[in-house]
Amino acid sequence: MAITFTDLEFSSLVDQFEGRAFSTYEFIEVLKRDHPKAWASFEKEYGSGGKGAGKPYSAYSRISRILDYWSKPARRLVDKLEYKKAPKSANWGSVKIRQWARDKNQIRGPVFPEEVLSTSKLFDEGAVVAIVVNRYERDLAARRACIAHHKAICAACGMDFEKRYGPRGAGFIHVHHKVAVSKRGQRHKVDPVEDLVPVCPNCHAMLHTVDDGLTVEALKKLLR
Questions:
Q1: Measured on CA atoms in the order 85, 89, 92, 97, is the torsion positive or negative?
Q2: 142-159: b (≥16 Cβ within 10 Å) or e
Q3: Which end of the chain has less neighbouring CB within 10 Å, N or C?
């Protein structure tokens, strides 16, 4: 099979996931962003993939083959994992989708989109850099401004790590975007007081476990 990417080019795409497991579809999304011309050539030659494509082999299939090629023992730039249920949003065309990872023995856990910042009172944020759950440029000043105003106390459950753990927990908290950066798309101004809110890791996980737009206020009511 002809290979479209060099080992270095392929590795740079896999490295976007920072050691986390990813699906074939998620790899394709990164490919589309970083190599749009290459993806366009795949679609031109093999046709669009996904549900309704009406063909057994498509651009999606091509990428699956490329991932499989680099997973072979002689190359092993990526490890092949098990299949998982394909998310409806992917319009994958199959009920299951293959998972992959740089190293199956050292898979990192999920990342929460949290930290942010800039130098003005309203902070520029955006420019998708992407990983599973997409990664963005963040400005630490915005995070600090958010915590300075709201304090390092979970807005959902009231957890105060300094009270619970003493000096070790001082200032520890996650910062959550009331409206996900991925929903906003292009660069935009972030008001650290109005757009960001401090939450503990557990509550932050609950806010992102299902992509249903659950608000901090709604989560707070679930805890009562």
A1: negative
A2: bbbbbbeebebbbbbbeb
A3: C
For residue 130, the one-letter residue type is A
User: What gap in Å lies between CA 157 and CA 199, rounded to an integer?
Assistant: 8
Q: Where are the domains of the chain?
A: 7-101, 123-222
128-157 per-position pLDDT tens digit:
333 333 333 345 677 888 888 999 999 999
Query: For residue 108, which amino acid is it?
Result: R
pTM beyond 0.70: the answer is no
Look-up of token digits 């807005």: 155
Do 67 and 27 meet the contact criterion of CB atoms below 8 Å apart? yes
